[in-house]
Amino acid sequence: MTKIFLIGFFISVTIGLLAFFIFENIGEDIENNINKAKSELGHKVKLGKDTLSITDYSILNENYTLSNGTKISFTLADSLKVVK
């Protein structure tokens, strides 16, 4: 009975630690994405003949909203950025 309890206890602790480290890494990734998106606000993007500013972002949809209301993906914004 004691061996079964100890085995169950160690398995539970191991699963708990694994879950903690997995969710901690996911949380850090989300926080890094939020900080990167916030830092891009106000940057200029060349879209066609227009030069527009990034005014908003969506972490869930992974896109920026430009000053004319157009939504573009994070990766597209990186390739269209105007060098200051």
Plain-language structure description:
By secondary structure, the protein is α+β, with helices and mostly antiparallel strands. The chain has one domain (2-80). The chain is built from 2 helices and 4 strands, in the order H-E-E-E-E-H. It has helices spanning 2-40, 74-80, and strands at residues 44-47, 50-58, 63-66, 71-73. Strands 1-2-3-4 form a 4-stranded antiparallel β-sheet. The N and C termini lie far apart (70 Å).
Per DSSP, the total helix count is 2
Structural class, judged by helices and strands? alpha+beta
Strand order of the largest sheet: 1-2-3-4
Terminal-residue CA separation: 70 Å
- Helix fraction, binned, reads 40-55%
The radius of gyration over CA amounts to 22 Å
**What's the pLDDT, averaged over the residues?**
85
Unreliable stretches: none
Based on Cα principal axes, name the global outline. rod-shaped
Q: Which strand-content bin applies to the residues? A: 15-25%
The largest pleated sheet is described as:
4 strands, antiparallel
* Structural domains: how many: 1
